[in-house]
What we know:
Blueprint: H1 2-25, E1 47-50, H2 66-75, E2 89-97, E3 109-114, H3 115-126, E4 145-152, E5 157-163, E6 169-176, E7 188-189, H4 192-198
Antiparallel strand pairs: 1-3, 2-3, 2-4, 4-5, 5-6, 6-7
Amino acid sequence: MSALRTRGLIGATLVVAVLGLTAACGYENATSPPAAQPTDTPTTPGTRSQSPTSGGTPSMDCPDNIAAVRAATDKVVWGQGAATSLFQPVSVTICQFDAQASGQDYATVTTKRTAKQATDLFALVNAPKPVAKKPAICTKELGPTYVLRFTDNDRGVLSYTVEAFGCRRLVATSLEGQGKPGTLPAPRQVTPELIKSLGLR
């Protein structure tokens, strides 16, 4: 009888120990908070900064508001200018304006690319053939406007306006710097490859 009691006590002790262990460790099938999943970080070919305000803020890198950008773009004469630009950039600043930008709104996203990234982007700008007449058929969708400010070793700055919507105009608007040739590249239209590259910021 004492042996049976001893066995009973040992069995009860084992049951209690197993229950205690299960409570301490939790059930295998119990729901637990999901593990943190890695997020996809887009590959950016340049450094990027975003304006804290929706209308953007003026900066040394992107000094013009959208009204000034559009005025300079509208002034360009189609069918005139060099077929390709001989400018040799070493860096570029990309100023991106929101699709809804108007009036005194400034660029909301600024990206910088240097060395090969700048020359690769410049090659995409130079690639389309000049267009003799201002585009007459334009779509009505909205999209961002970009200003590309290419800089060379002599601190010259060649600026382009890129419209990723509507008439898809790609026009050189100014060339700043001493001793720079006065002829701007002829206007042309944006290619899908250029838009794709600008979207990688």
